[in-house]
Amino acid sequence: MKNAQIADVFEQVADLLEFQGANPFRLRAYRNGARAIRDLPEPVDKLVKDEERDLTEIPGIGKDLAEKIVTLVNTGDLPMLKELCAKTPPSVLVLLRVPGLGPKKAAVLYNDLKVGSLEELRAACEAHQVRDLKGFGEKTEQKIFDGLSIASTIEERMYWATADEVAQAIVEHLRGAKGLEKIDAAGSYRRGRETIGDLDILVVSSKPDQIMDRLAKYQDVAEVIARGDTKMSVRLTGGLQVDVRVVPAESFGAALQYFTGSKAHNVVLRGRAKTKGLKINEYGVFRGEERIAGATEEEVYKTLGLPCFPPELREARREFEWADAGHLPDLVERADLRGDLHMHTTETDGKATLEEMVAAARERGLSYIAITDHSKRVSMANGLDATRLRKQWSEIDRLNARLKGFTVLKGVEVDILEKGGLDLDDDVLSEADWVVASVHYGQSQPREQITRRIVDALANPHVSAIAHPTGRLINRRKAYEVDLDAVFKAARQHGKLLELNANPARLDLDDVACAAAKGFGIPIVISSDAHSVGGLDVLRYGVLQARRGGLTKEDVANTRPWPAVKKLIGSRG
Ligand code: DGT
Ligand code: CA
Ligand code: CA
Ligand code: ZN
User: Fold this and answer.
1) Helix H segments across 285-425?
2) How do residues 13-33 score in pLDDT, each as one tens digit?
3) What is 3-151's CATH number, 3.20.20.80, 1.10.150.110, 3.30.465.10, 1.20.140.10?
4) Among 13, 118, 241, 492, which one has the highest count of C-beta atoms within 10 angstroms of its own C-beta?
5) What is the pTM of this model?
6) How far is the CA of 563 from the centre of ligand 3 (A)?
7) Domain 260-325 in CATH: superfamily?
8) Which of 195, 200, 267 for a ligand 1 pocket mutation test, highest count of atoms within 8 Å of Cβ?
């Protein structure tokens, strides 16, 4: 079980407990636990198997939750959740998807109005029955009504990073099937979208039945949704749907193209085919009845006079424009990254020491890192004041003196204070090699205020970059109201960099914002924000997002050696 799935289970437990009116302290333990696991940069299941580690090391995880995690990892299930579910009408969980409707209010709706589905909730709102309930009122009724349209469209989508583990495991499992000739995962997963609705897997096989039998036997299959001659859909424990299609070898490329999508990209492609007097579908490219391409994606695109677009670009954004101009951007790759400029150590809320982070970064082929522990405002993380920071920096100096072919930069992640300004004085910041400034508090301030804070931080001569510039947490928290355009302008004016935080829950800046930043000529720095040794491995998720934004090696600052990065900072100031 993946961290995110375990966190989801704890959230569900908390919701159900709250629905049943349980003790608030009990709820809070589960909610805090969920957050702790979600934010943990290393896989909990590995931690469980490591005899030297204890889950209760994780802040927010006590003995009780630790035991539940062990149960979840070992069995994929939590008896407590089953019991709670058995005591709760299943439809209530659907009600909880409505923004503005928590478990407590859902309980009132269910008990007093017998509302048990989104349709019934809509009807109750329309009949103005909701406003008369105790603790509701007209405004709440309206809010719930507005939230209904969102609830029916959002199903929680899985992080790409989680889907990746699942996809690799399933593909590996299916490779064991007799008659398998080719297999590839398509869909949003192949396009590297930050979240995945379902997995689409394509197979060439002389024995489709063998593939399907083997899929049915996969350990995590909870339910077979449908099985036909060439297509099978299953649902995994944890909820992800997987569609497997068996296609003829001569159509494999066409099917891979079609099922990779995106839909919008395919629509444009069909139009292009049409103007050439051709037809394209998942079986091939046709002139009249004759199939003129289909075995490979390259030939499918080539027949239409197009390059074989990297999947990350297939969103009908600018890829056709680029193709028409004769060149696609040469997208950045993980191997291009030479350094990582955002990470934490045991001095604040990291799990590994300075030396351990250095060793791990070297193992991963990096040649420099910046240590950017939190500043004092983040008291929960034991943030550093000037004295402790300078002490850490002298340690870094001593370490650098011993290191060959590797540089540790003296950095800090300085908080942008709620009232504006930075959490550390200029005199200490001026001694740093690299300063990332970030907003952790006052996230719900109005647009102008929060934008001003960030723009002012960019104007500070000692700040190098802004970390996670929008603060969004995928599936959990919306971006701040920040005016990104103003941030881009300020970054350009002062010659500053912007981060693409590679944590799979953040991916901030996202693909679209990266493309926009590139338009302003702002270098992007892809950073892990690692809080542990394993946390360094998230860089590849950042790279995927950068690729979706059309970024090349040139556009990403930390593909350069450190002295060249340094030259970028303040260069336009
Ligand atoms: P997801 O699963 O919501 O994360 O997103 P996708 O992109 O994987 O979408 P999915 O699984 O519904 O379909 C996979 C691909 O199949 C999609 O990217 C494009 C193709 N496709 C599906 N339905 C249609 C359609 O109605 N028209 C066209 N042109 N393509 C489609
Ligand atoms: Ca899909
Ligand atoms: Ca699908
Ligand atoms: Zn950080």
Assistant:
1) 297-303, 319-325, 354-363, 386-402
2) 998 898 888 888 888 899 999
3) 1.10.150.110
4) 13
5) 0.79
6) 46
7) DNA polymerase, thumb domain (3.30.210.10)
8) 200
